[in-house]
Amino acid sequence: RGERTKDEETSTWLVGTDYVSPYYEANKEVLKTAFGYATNSNRCSEAGSGLYTDFYCAASGFGTYIYAYGGVQASISNSNCYIFQYGDAMCEWS
């Protein structure tokens, strides 16, 4: 989940790619719980740094990415669904 945040010093809105989502760490904990990270940490991994960090978990043909900038992606077999930082969503099938 990404949120718009206002920079009070510059009076500008920070969105998506401009900042690390304040929900990133909380979303990681949700994925860890959902994918049983405590008993099988191999199901999840983290890569990148700063705005380009993502956390991924997968099991039985289903995978989910969360991104530091606020985006979310879920994959089921041959499909990908995305939730963007403003709340829009889309799915692709191949």
Structure report:
The chain has one helix spanning 24-34; strands spanning 5-7, 12-14, 44-47, 54-59, 62-67, 72-76, 79-83, 89-93. The model has no long low-confidence stretch (mean pLDDT 76). It contains 1 helix and 8 strands. The strands form 2 sheets. It has a 6-stranded antiparallel sheet, with helices on one face. It has a two-stranded antiparallel sheet with strand order 1-2. It has 94 residues and is mainly beta.
Task: Offer a quick outline of the entry.
With 94 residues, the protein is mainly beta.
SSE layout and pairing:
Layout: E1 5-7, E2 12-14, H1 24-34, E3 44-47, E4 54-59, E5 62-67, E6 72-76, E7 79-83, E8 89-93
Antiparallel strand pairs: 1-2, 3-4, 4-5, 5-6, 6-7, 7-8
Number of helices: 1
The assigned structural class equals mainly beta
Average pLDDT: 76
Instruction: Kindly estimate the percentage of residues that lie in beta strands according to DSSP.
Output: 35-45%
State the helical fraction: 10-25%
Q: Low-confidence stretches at least 5 residues in length (pLDDT < 50)?
A: none
Distance between the termini: 26 Å
Tell me the total number of β-strands: 8
How can the largest sheet be summarized? 6 strands, antiparallel
Strand arrangement in the largest pleated sheet: 3-4-5-6-7-8
The 3D shape can be described as globular
